[in-house]
Specification:
- This protein is 37% helix and 17% strand.
- By secondary structure, it is of the alpha+beta class.
- The strands form 2 sheets. Strands 1-2-4-3-5-8 form a 6-stranded antiparallel sheet. Strands 6-7 form a two-stranded antiparallel sheet.
- The termini are far apart.
């Protein structure tokens, strides 16, 4: 009985550690994609919120910085595409900004940014451009033929107690793109 209980506890711990590793890999990708100090500060605040680092006492004179905004692209057809630069922004994009009929994209089983296409009708060219953006802002940035899942926002669900940026989804499709094509986007 002790062995059975130990085995169950070990399986639970392994699953928990796998989730932690996924989350920390997504934070690492966000740090690598950060362009300025404000974005690093947003990631630091996220890590304070999730209790990975302790909050320091602030001076009364220090000013509060506003959180940075997600990246914004416009497709060749004039459709808005938004990209989260950290997990807090990923949650904001996927759960607040996007309506249920907008398209959500993310690299398949690879840590990366959430991408939202703010349109109900999306042509193949816009879908491919958004998928290239999703692959570029992921750990698969230097690879080729990166799988990118896409689904309607209404198919997303944030599990109770999940870390920022973590969602589950169903009824998705997958498109394969080359992140190196990012430089050719207008």
């Amino acid at each position: 009985n002790k062995l059975k209980k130990s085995e169950e506890a070990a399986k639970e711990q392994l699953e928990k550690n796998s989730e932690e590793l996924l989350y920390l890999n997504s934070v690492l990708i966000n740090i690598q994609n950060a362009d300025n100090y404000e974005e690093i500060e947003d990631i630091k605040n996220e890590l304070i919120t999730t209790e990975y680092i302790r909050k320091r006492k602030q001076n009364k004179n220090s000013k509060k910085s506003k959180p940075s905004k997600p990246l914004h692209f416009i497709s060749s057809d004039g459709i808005d595409i938004y990209v989260g630069k950290n997990n807090i922004q990923n949650d904001y994009l996927s759960l607040k900004l996007a309506s249920k009929n907008h398209l959500w994209l993310h690299t398949k089983n690879i840590p990366g940014s959430h991408v939202i296409i703010k349109a109900t009708e999306v042509d193949d060219e816009t879908l491919e451009q958004a998928a290239i953006i999703a692959a570029f802002y992921s750990k698969g940035k230097n690879g080729s033929k990166i799988p990118v899942d896409y689904t309607l926002v209404k198919n997303l669900k944030k599990p109770n107690g999940a870390k920022p940026g973590m969602v589950i989804y169903h009824t998705n499709n997958t498109i394969y793109v080359d992140p190196k094509d990012f430089n050719t986007l207008d």
